[in-house]
Design a protein that fits this description.
alpha/beta, Rossmann fold, 3-stranded antiparallel beta sheet, 5 helices, globular
Length: about 180
């Protein structure tokens, strides 16, 4: 299935503003950084998490731990993804017990990725709270999951897709909406 670009919905400035706002909201909701940790979901969630951690340091002067989750082995569609799925390292080098964890991902869609991330993070310990930050919430949930911090809500049809492009992986920051190319 191929998609063609329909419209740019966020440029570099909008992405940066959204991440700055999310960072402020995380600090406001969590009151202090002492028990706060940020965990990004590979790949784009990891890059967004790193930026949020940098923002929090600039805003509050405090460093917060960052972790990276690779949810590949927790997927419920693992056999459909690839015959030999590529598994990458999950890296959480701090105790998550008694922490307020903020999971970070680029797009919230059906909720299946977040369900996988929740299953995996619980295998590391028992946090006080798990919150969710996403750059884009596009709707169409299949699980009862909602984000606590959202950069932009973008209602989409099922024929559309959201592409988040980041400097770290794609050379530029932007978010585009694409639609199925029925040619």
């Amino acid at each position: 299935m191929t998609f063609k670009e329909k419209a740019k919905i966020m440029d570099e400035g909008a992405v940066q503003k959204a991440l700055t706002r999310i960072s402020h909201e995380i600090l406001e909701k969590n009151k202090e950084t002492k028990n706060l940790a940020i965990v990004g979901i590979r790949y784009r969630g990891e890059f967004l998490a790193r930026r949020i951690v940098e923002n929090i340091k600039k805003i509050s002067g405090s460093s917060v731990p960052i972790g990276i989750l690779d949810i590949t082995l927790y997927r419920d569609d693992l056999t459909e993804v690839a015959e030999q799925p590529q598994v990458h390292e999950t890296h959480i080098d701090f105790d998550i017990s008694d922490k307020n964890i903020v999971l970070v991902d680029d797009v919230l869609y059906t909720g299946r990725t977040i369900r996988c991330a929740l299953d995996e993070i619980i295998d590391f310990g028992r946090p006080v709270r798990i919150q969710l930050a996403v750059l884009i919430d596009r709707g169409h949930r299949e699980f009862p999951i909602r984000a606590d911090f959202v950069g932009k809500n973008v209602p989409t049809s099922l024929k559309e897709a959201i592409e988040v492009r980041l400097k770290e992986s794609d050379g530029k920051d932007e978010v585009v909406i694409c639609e199925k190319d029925d040619r």
